[in-house]
Design brief:
Blueprint lengths: L1 E7 L6 E7 L3 H9 L4 E7 L2 E11 L5 E10 H39 L3
Antiparallel strand pairs: 1-2, 3-4, 4-5
Length: about 110
Amino acid sequence: MIRKKNLYRRPLKPFESVRIKEENETIKERVLAQGQTFEGSVDILSVPYFAVFSPLKSFDNNVVGMLFVGRPQTSILQTAARSIELTFSISAILLVLSGLPAYLISKYIAGQTV
C-alpha cells in the first residue's frame, strides 16, 4: 500500500506530495484487512507522527486503500507546552493581582473601630 504524505519543502511551494510504502504490519492488518480505523503514533521517514489511518471503501464496501492524516509529534507537544506555560503565567499574574484587593480590604477592616 502506498501512503501519500506532505512534507514542508521550500517557502514558495510549502507542501509536496510524496508516496511512501506503508511498512507497519499492524496498520496494514487493522486498516486494510479488518477495515477499522487506526489511531496512534507512527514513524514516517524517521519522524514520529500522531496519525490516523482510515480505510477507503468502494461502493460495495470492499477496502481499496487507506487515508492517512497526521501531524509531527514535536509540533503538537510544543503547542501543548506553550499552552501550559501560558496557563501558568496567567494564573501567577491573577494570583498576584488578587492579593492586592485582599490586602487593601484587610487594612480597611483593621482600621475600623468597633
